[in-house]
Amino acid sequence: MTTLAERTRLITPPGTSKMRVLANELKAAGIHVVNFAAGELDFDTSPVVKTAAKAAIDAGRNTYTPTLGLASLRKAVAKRISARLGVDYAPGEVGLTAGAKQALYNAAMVLLNPGDEVIVPQPYWVTFPTQVEICGAIPVFVDTRDNGYRLLASSVERSLTPRTRAIIINSPNNPTGTLYEERELKKIARLAIAHNLWIIFDECYAELIRDGHQHGNIVQLCPEVKERTILVNSFSKSLALTGWRLGYVAAPEAVIKAMENLQGHTTSNPNSISQYAVEAALADDDTAFIDEVNRRLQARLLLAHELVTHMEGIVAAPAEGAFYLFLNIQSKIGRRFGDVVVRDVDHLCELLLSQARVAVVSGSAFGDASGIRVSYAISDDDIREGLTRMTEFFNSIH
Ligand SMILES: Cc1ncc(COP(=O)(O)O)c(C=O)c1O
Question: What cofactor(s) does the depicted protein rely on (predicted)?
Answer without folding.
Answer: pyridoxal 5'-phosphate
